[in-house]
Specification:
The chain is mainly alpha-helical and about 200 residues long. Helices cover about 80% and strands about 0% of the residues. Helix 3 runs antiparallel to helix 4, helix 3 packs across helix 5 and helix 9 packs antiparallel against helix 10.
């Protein structure tokens, strides 16, 4: 669905905006919701308060700012990528790389909230999380070749950062944390691809 703006011959900026809208509709904006809830919750004074804020469906100023910045960064990176040959493939590659940290965080961190979505899903073995990362890397490499490694490192770094913050502030991960990790890792991968491909 995200590719049709390109086929319609729209300018890269417009195509990028429509691609982001299509991606949000496809996923139900679950990762965006996770990022907003996580950004709001991390400002709480205690672990219990942070988890309570994250469970609240209302969005606060931290959540709004996190969403605005994430959308702007992704939009700009996509606009740069869609203006160069082969840049559209980086969108699919970044989506794959962005989801790999979710499995890693589920395997590495315990659920922070008993009875939450993440706790109900369970924790995959480390080998399963490693397999997910290898598959994502293989798909990205098949699509974007030599530009893959910087994007993979950027995505992994973003996922690791989210995991470290979640462990320090929440004592584990939640569904919102996983969504935030996926969106930030994807954003980091898109930015790395934009640097690698748009400046080539």
């Amino acid at each position: 669905a995200w590719a049709w703006p390109l086929a319609a011959g729209l300018a890269p900026g417009l195509a990028a905006g429509l691609a982001l809208a299509a991606m949000a509709l496809t996923t139900g904006a679950l990762h965006e919701d996770g990022l907003a809830d996580t950004a709001d919750g991390l400002g709480g004074a205690t672990v219990e308060r942070r988890l309570a804020i994250m469970k609240d469906s209302r969005i606060g100023s931290y959540g709004v700012m996190a969403l605005v910045l994430a959308v702007l960064l992704r939009w700009q990176a996509l606009a740069l990528l869609l203006a160069v040959p082969g840049g559209a493939a980086a969108l699919v590659a970044a989506a794959a790389l962005g989801r790999a940290p979710m499995a890693g965080l589920m395997a590495a961190l315990p659920p922070a909230r008993p009875g939450g979505l993440s706790a109900a899903t369970g924790r995959p073995p480390a080998r399963v999380a490693a397999g997910a990362a290898v598959l994502a890397l293989a798909l990205a490499a098949a699509l974007t070749g030599g530009a893959t490694m910087p994007a993979a490192l950027a995505a992994a770094g973003a996922g690791l950062a989210v995991g470290l913050v979640a462990r320090a502030r929440l004592g584990g991960q939640t569904g919102d944390v996983l969504g935030a990790a996926a969106l930030l890792a994807e954003t980091a991968a898109l930015m790395a691809y934009a640097v690698a491909l748009a400046s080539a």
